[in-house]
Amino acid sequence: MTLSLKDRLDASATATETRLALALADAALPGERLRPERLMAAMRHGALGGGKRLRPFLVIESAALFGIPAEQAVTAATAIECIHCYSLVHDDLPAMDDDDLRRGRPTVHRAYDEATAILAGDGLLTLAFDLLAGEDAHPDAAVRIALVRALARAAGIGGMVGGQMLDLTAEGRFSGGAPLALAEDAIRDLQAMKTGALLAVSVEAGALLGGATADERAALLAYGRALGAAFQIADDILDVEGTAEEVGKKVGKDAAAGKATLVSRLGLPAARTLLDRLVADASAALAPFGARGAVLAEAALFVANRRN
Ligand code: GRG
Questions:
Q1: Collapsed DSSP state (helix, strand, coil) of residue 205
Q2: Where are the domains of the chain?
Q3: Helices in the chain by DSSP H: which ranges?
Q4: For residue 96, which atom of ligand 1 is closest to its CA?
Q5: At what angle do helices 114-133 and 70-91 cross, to 10 degrees?
Q6: 141 C-beta neighbours (distance < 10 Å), count
Q7: Cα–ligand 1 centroid distance for 28 (angstroms)
Q8: Which of 88, 117, 136, 191 would you label with 151, given CA atoms 20 to 30 Å apart?
Q9: Model's pTM, two decimal places?
Q10: 225 C-beta closer than 6 A to ligand 1
């Protein structure tokens, strides 16, 4: 029996939650005496019990294209989710977006305090590489190194962290407060770094786990890039339309902060047209996988039409 997309999302989310809980259990700490319990609790608050777990789903389903069972992909999937959760914990801090709610619950610095939230983010970031470097992630050390490098690059200065800095710069944070008027291409590049890179590396990780050929890896990367761009436009549409209100997201916050988005630059109708095109591009990139690509193609539609 073939599973629905929702069943597959649920299955990968459950597997990720279980792996994350194991990695964040007190028992995972070395040593017996001094245990940073407040830090561990804050990390659990930031990482467990919420979120769509979209990135782990992408790792698991792209690895499945090559016959890799979910149990063998879940550690790498969990590592990428750790990076994502760390980015949310830090993004919510007073020095960044200063948010009180995340995933319908108090943000980590609200539930604990700012210093603990900074360290919880740092702990999740380093845990990601601990997970990826272990034999659980893949038996072949060369594959593990490739995974570590791909994730470091996606999360680092040429990816998420760099994109976040460019975003803060575009908001006018370092130039007296007036937002910069970025051209469409600049917004697309910024977003490809800030949010696209982590989504793209999720499918790249699946390709690495599965021993993909260079062509298959390129096809998955093209899919991941189109999906990443679609994800961000959908997020920006949600921000202006207000449909994310019920999940505790502050609607219109990004627009009010003068964030550089394609919705504000192109207008809603053109942004929607671009979103449709990106979903079509994502599906087209999966052509080399034939019918096996159907799950990821459906996931692109889900990302574009999501309501939270
Ligand atoms: C602070 C280093 C650092 C980076 C922050 C990703 C990011 C960069 C900030 C997040 C801000 C934000 C809300 C961006 C919009 C896109 C996005 C990443 C939304 C949240 O991702 P989802 O929808 O979240 O996958 P869940 O909760 O489902 O995991």
A1: helix
A2: 5-305
A3: 5-23, 37-47, 54-64, 70-91, 108-111, 114-133, 141-155, 160-170, 184-191, 197-209, 214-241, 253-256, 262-266, 268-285, 294-305
A4: 1
A5: 160
A6: 10
A7: 27
A8: 117
A9: 0.95
A10: no
